[in-house]
Amino acid sequence: MVAKAKRKTSANGPDDRVCVIIAAKNAAGTIGAAISSALGDVHVAEVVVIDDGSSDGTTHAARVADDGSERLRIIRFDINKGPAYARNQAISASSSPLISILDADDFFLPGRFSCLLADKEWDLAADNIVFIDQKWLSGFDAASIKRFPADPRFLDLPTFVARNISIRNRQRGELGFLKPVMRRDFLDRHGLRYNEKLRLGEDYDLYTRALAVGARFQIINNCGYGAVVRSDSLSGRHRTDDLKQLADADKALLESSVLSGEAREAVRQHERHIRGKYHHRQFLDTKSQQGIAAAMAYCLKNPSALSPVAGGIFTDKLDGLFPQRGPKPDASETPAALRYLFSGPAAE
């Protein structure tokens, strides 16, 4: 369910200052464009880059992108700590009242924050995302992006969580991809920071906990964020234990006293979905490392794993027999074939 938001505008002021946080690992080839897109926005007062244990020239590439405005700060970790830890450190190192996350291989589109900040009655505000395949990046022209009416509206927790349950063999479109602007005072008031145990779903987890304590999460159809789709993206690879940690984060929220009704049921469904994926992956890992007998023993010791493991194996077999079941690419093999997180009324 999404609720319409009233359109309200006001002049720019000190409360419109944005800190852009970029956590980067081995992003020397892309971080310059990310930084430049952030520094190019008049609302951006700070850009904090965390070089999270890179082994390439990420820090050097970030320095080269500095525009001399003294808004860029670079912090380097010698040991990789993960995106959640890196972002929390950047939040602590910054002071702007608004916080915005930018992935090191993505970029902002011109005028992004003017659109997001046109309304004021929110705690988190996010816009549409255009997904661009890496192979078309060199020919990408921002003018080719579709224009959508802003149509501001608010997300509730059940809608947000439900839209983060992926459907196999369909193009991914989880709302956890959203990169909202967040009000620092709201995060501080509720003691909200990224869960540093997570290396998968850390955005989903933070937004869900924010909604659980009453965040007004506004979304607009206007497209202001460019996400580059790469086959070797770090976010596209995760360990089996990362799934367990995400399911455990859902479980911890369920065991708290902040959820009830539809919100509680939505988080319960998400926890079961992620837990099932974990069991399936753990079964396959155990089979690969210790053999089928050990994998079957794992299921016997964990009865709740039986159904998701059986379902996962069955679906894997179907995919092997019918490979055309996979996600269908855009029909047009041109740079104009852009994919959007939502192309109509947001989140519907």
TrEMBL record:
Keywords: Transferase. It holds the Pfam family Glycos_transf_2. The keyword Transferase applies. InterPro entries: Glyco_trans_2-like, Glycosyltransf_2, Nucleotide-diphossugar_trans. The keyword Transferase applies. GO terms for molecular function: transferase activity. CDD domains: Glyco_tranf_GTA_type. Residues 19-135 form the Glycosyltransferase 2-like domain. This is Glycosyltransferase. It comes from the Bacteria.
